[in-house]
Structure formats: structure tokens, C-alpha cells
Amino acid sequence: MTINWYGQSCFRLESKGVSILIDPFSKEIGLRQPRLNDNVFLVTHEHFDHNNVPSSAATGGGGETTESFVIRGPGEYEKSGIHIEGIMSYHDNTQGTQRGLNTIYIIRAEDMRLCHLGDLGQNKLTDEQVEAIGDVDVLFIP
Known about the structure:
5-stranded mixed β-sheet
């Protein structure tokens, strides 16, 4: 597995021919954008610095096109043998009332469990979130 960081909370995971781009940002944030031709896109929340998926990609909650698979929230997903689980969390410490929701993603590939916290704004994870996350091999804390 190859893992690259592009700044902000944008990471690319490449595993067995599948490329996953997490939280692709808009060029307006001032960083050089990664290429956007991945198989899977994970969006932790709908802010411009985390949700720049290609216009040719599906824009619905986990919809699939022939070009890419876009996941935009909680749920369980699978693509080409990669298992992904989205766990609801908050982008602020007031249960999302100020900045909205955030999705924590668990990715299972190559006998590893990876966790991307997204733009987590809670002061503390709930017991339910901790249980859903479980033990992880790689933790992304943007």
C-alpha cells in the first residue's frame, strides 16, 4: 500500500490497483492539487477545502459511475475488495450546529485498518464512535 499526503486533510491510498483520494481540496486554498483521476473519492464534509471531486464523478451519496465511486457520508461501502465504513461525527463541539457534520472513515485493505478522522471538531469521541472505529493500524489526524 502506498500513502501520500497532499496538504490539508487530503491523502491518497493506493492498494492493489485501487486509488482512493480522501478530502480533495479546491485550488482556492493555495496548495497544488493532486490529479483527480482516482477510483474512489471520500468526502468527510461539504466544505470547499474537502469536497473537490471531478465534475464527471458521481455527486450523490456513494453513487457510482463508470469513472469513479464517490462516498459522501456515513454507511458501509465496498469497491474492488476495499471495505469502507463512514461514521457520523461533528465538525464542531456543538453537535454540528456551527459547522455541520463530519464523517470519520474506516478503510480496510491489505489486512490493515486505516482511520481518517476528517475535520473532527468534537472535543471527545463518543463511546459509540470509539467502538465503531475499533483498533486501527494507521490513523490520519488532519
